[in-house]
Amino acid sequence: MCANCGFPAAPGHWTEAGIDKTVDRLQSRHRRASILRNALQPYGLTAHDDGSTPGIEISTLTGNIELAENLAAVWEVAERLCGKQIDPLSPAYLCAEEDGYYQSAEN
Questions:
Q1: Beta-sheet strands, E only, within 24-97
Q2: What is the total count of domains within the chain?
Q3: Which residues contact 55 (CB under 8 A, 6 or more apart)?
Q4: Residue 47 forms part of a structural domain
């Protein structure tokens, strides 16, 4: 159990399936946090995953912070923090670049 957030240490999330090495798992978590930062930026939110804390930290520009236990919980936390519904499958975010980072469909 993490003393800071209260989440138990998880062996991994289904989105990390097939990742065997610790280094690969950390790289995957950092990459996922980068993609989430881009997706949440239009809502005035940011995502951070330091690789050691269980969960993903979602924060507002004014400093409100909540931890999402896993990827599925990110959207619930984000909606609660920004006060509006967020659609992670919005066409604005479905224009994925080859490197995996999302950009607005209008760009």
A1: 45-48, 56-60, 65-68, 95-96
A2: 1
A3: 5, 7, 49, 67, 68, 69, 70, 73
A4: yes
Find the radius of gyration of the CA atoms of the chain: 14
**Are 54 and 5 spatial neighbours (Cβ–Cβ below 8 Å)?**
yes
Whether residue 16 is contained in a domain is answered as no
- pLDDT digit string (tens) for the chain, length 107 residues: 555 555 555 555 666 666 666 667 778 888 888 888 988 888 899 999 887 777 899 999 999 999 998 888 999 999 999 998 888 777 765 654 334 444 443 33
Residue 36 belongs to domain spanning: 21-103
What region does 12 belong to: left with phi over 0, alpha with psi -120 to 50, or beta? left
